[in-house]
Amino acid sequence: MCCVPAAYGQGKTSVLILGKDKGTVSSVVSGGHVLVDARKTTKKLGGTVELFSAAKQIKVAFPGMYAILSSPSRDVFLNGSLEKLPVPVAISGGKIYVPVEFFMLPQVQKVLDRQITFEKNTLVVEKHYTVSLEGIAQLAEQDQFIFSLQNVSYVIQHPNNHTVKILFADAILKRPSNQRPRDNYVRSFSLMQRGKDVVLEIILGNQGKTWKATERPDGLLFSVSAKALANPLPVPTVEVKPTTAPAAELSPSVIAQSEQEDAEELSLSSGDENPQPVMNAAVQPVMSAAPGAVMTAAVPKDQIRIIVDPGHGGKDSGAVRKGSAKEKDLNLVVAKHLYNYLKKQGFAVKLTRSDDTFVTLAGRSKMANEFKADLFISVHTNAAKRSQANGFEVYFRSDKATDKEAAEVAEFENEALQYEETHYNFVDKLLQSLAKNEYMNESSKLAGHVRKYIYKEPGIGIAVSQSNAIRQANFYVLRGVHAPAILVEMGFISSPKDRPRLNNKSVQKHMGEGIGKGVVAYLKQEGKIK
């Protein structure tokens, strides 16, 4: 093989996938373009490579796509079609180097379902996002948060004197962020994906007297200042028209000039006990905020999507005890009662299975995401070696279990993995890697409402502890769900107390309805339904 001309610069290029550093690959520079090691870069993106030394060619393959690249040529045969690269493929030290633009071709981004860019000598692989936090600037007497928006509308809410929320409707977040700026202007900053929306929540600090949201051509600038307004007046909840400008990176020097530019602004002082609304002519109020309420945009019930997941099924029986129906069958009966209750309430509801069918754990969470679920409720029946163990429990996901018993419950429920025969492609693995704690707070709230209403529901007769019925553990089925998600353990099939109740048809109906009432209470409390 020939060598790369000496004029080429040798170096390293970083690879960043969903915000995680995936190391570096060898790279060279020619004509102002970076070429990367084709083999290593492809493998980092989850593809496969075949090297044909004699022909100086490499075959790059991803699920649903293959490409043939040759040295020294700019031509790429991609799924049989010809594409042109900006500079030729090159060879050096037994490695084939391809222009980084190859991995940014629309066909590659499409099969990976990812947005791929090249920034500061780094190949960046992200979700197809419409909202991103571009930077934070801590200036004299002011904190500033810079967001890029792509065709996204948003609603600003001020539920109480120290909280500001912005709801970006039907948006996709690049990456969640939870921060404490450690100054007196902002106490905490949270940017999260919640179902189909992105929610920004800022808790003002002691010196956060005034906040301001400034619409910019490339997004939004949110500022919190120590300077109180001369005539502090609030602004009502408003809806701002979408901005269609592409995301742009803003430097602190550009941010500092923002107050000199003409823009539509919203300002509010937190010092007025009885504020009066001031409205910019360009915006109109859409809703008001009650002090202390947790605010999100209320929508009709039929726009709330809920996945009900009957645990186990098919070849996976779950817990089995003599004198009782199998867990998979108990789960399905109660899940159907829950499904029917929620449907009657007017919600959009879907079952992960409606009969004795095996569904993989990853398949359940994937089904929820494809359904764009706002909530995920997995219904199970508990079991333990100790027959004394009894009672209703509800879990939300955490990497760290509440205690040893909670860890054992998760371990048992995760055993369904042994039945799974599906081999997932790279895209599935990326989706599974999105298991973060962004919905932990909402999931814990949902769990609390469900526990409360099961306790209140008559005709169940299964104990509900006031102190430890809400628990957390690392359940695989909850890992990849992009929404608040809980796993209900209705009772212990291994318990002489719970077993007859679990097998009682009337109890099963009350159990499903009790869970449903908790779900409705949660949605009302959080302002998610009208």
List the total number of helices: 11
Largest sheet: 7 strands, mixed
Percentage beta strand: 25-35%
CATH superfamily of the largest domain: Zn-dependent exopeptidases
Q: In the CATH classification, which architecture of the largest domain applies?
A: 3-Layer(aba) Sandwich
Give the neighbour order of strands across the main sheet.
Answer: 9-10-3-2-1-12-11
End-to-end distance, in Å? 69 Å
Helicity level: 10-25%
Write up what this structure looks like.
By secondary structure, the protein is an alpha+beta fold. It is 21% helix and 34% strand. Helix 4 crosses helix 11 (505-525) and helix 8 packs across helix 11. The longest helix is centred in the C-terminal third of the chain and has 21 residues, at 505-525. The protein is globular.
Helix and strand layout, with pairings?
Elements: E1 9-17, E2 20-30, E3 33-37, H1 38-44, E4 48-52, E5 57-62, E6 65-70, E7 75-78, E8 81-84, E9 90-92, E10 95-99, H2 106-112, E11 115-119, E12 122-126, E13 131-139, E14 142-149, E15 152-160, E16 163-168, E17 177-179, E18 186-194, E19 197-204, E20 210-216, E21 219-225, E22 238-243, H3 252-256, E23 265-269, E24 284-285, E25 305-310, H4 327-345, E26 348-351, H5 361-370, E27 375-382, E28 393-397, H6 404-413, H7 426-432, H8 440-456, E29 470-473, H9 476-479, E30 485-492, H10 498-502, H11 505-525
Parallel strand pairs: 1-12, 25-26, 25-27, 27-30, 28-29
Antiparallel strand pairs: 1-2, 2-3, 3-10, 4-5, 5-6, 6-7, 7-8, 9-10, 11-12, 13-14, 14-21, 15-16, 15-22, 16-19, 17-18, 18-19, 20-21, 20-23, 22-24, 28-30
Helix pairs in contact: 4-11, 8-11
